[in-house]
């Protein structure tokens, strides 16, 4: 499961689609609708929010908005809390740098033309996140 902290505009098609699918799975886990992936480390930051369902809803909404801007059709009705407030989940600069390099490796293999769209450094965080100083997140499994 990869729930990208990077801004959805940075994600290539494959990462955006996979992020949507995995975000929907995360939503199911957080609302108790599935028994799998309940201990997945990336869910820690959503569970730590006062409203985990709203936090994942906001996250999914940002992916859906990006998909719509590209002409894709991600079904907004699959988001349980589509109108959730921005949770402003803290994400470290180190985590964003780690994810950018991870995405860069993936894109190099599957869609090298996307590389020119990626920043050299200091990538933007997704709308659900607030950037803070620090290393890679403790829940990340590098």
Structural overview:
By secondary structure, the chain is mostly helical. It has one domain (8-132). The protein has helices at 13-30, 44-47, 52-69, 93-110; strands at 89-92, 129-132. It has a two-stranded parallel sheet. The longest helix is centred in the N-terminal third of the chain and has 18 residues, at 13-30. The two termini are 13 Å apart. The model has no long low-confidence stretch (mean pLDDT 95).
Concise summary:
The protein contains four helices and two strands.
- Biggest beta-sheet profile: 2 strands, parallel
Radius of gyration: 14 Å
Tell me the distance between the termini.
13 Å
**Count of folded domains:** 1
> Order of strands in the sheet with the most strands?
1-2
Q: What would you call the shape?
A: globular
- Provide a count of the helices: 4
Q: Structural class from helices and strands?
A: mainly alpha
Uncertain runs are none
Spell the H/E element sequence.
Answer: HHHEHE
Number of strands: 2
Mean pLDDT: 95
Beta fraction: 5-15%
Q: Which percent range fits the helix content?
A: 40-55%
Please describe the structure with a list of short key phrases separated by commas or semicolons.
single chain, 142 residues, mainly alpha, two-stranded parallel ribbon, 4 helices, 2 strands, globular
Architecture blueprint of SSEs:
Blueprint: H1 13-30, H2 44-47, H3 52-69, E1 89-92, H4 93-110, E2 129-132
Parallel strand pairs: 1-2
Helix pairs in contact: 1-3
């Amino acid at each position: 499961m990869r729930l990208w902290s990077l801004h959805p505009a940075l994600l290539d098609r494959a990462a955006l689609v996979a992020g949507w699918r995995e975000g929907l799975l995360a939503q199911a886990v957080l609302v108790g609708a599935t028994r799998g992936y309940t201990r997945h480390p990336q869910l820690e930051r959503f569970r730590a929010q006062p409203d985990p369902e709203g936090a994942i809803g906001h996250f999914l909404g940002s992916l859906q908005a990006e998909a719509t801007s590209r002409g894709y059709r991600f079904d907004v009705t699959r988001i349980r809390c589509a109108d959730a407030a921005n949770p402003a989940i803290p994400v470290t600069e180190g985590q964003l740098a780690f994810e950018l390099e991870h995405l860069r490796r993936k894109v190099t293999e599957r869609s090298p033309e996307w590389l020119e769209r990626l920043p050299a450094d200091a990538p933007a965080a997704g709308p659900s996140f607030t950037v803070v100083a620090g290393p890679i997140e403790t829940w990340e499994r590098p």
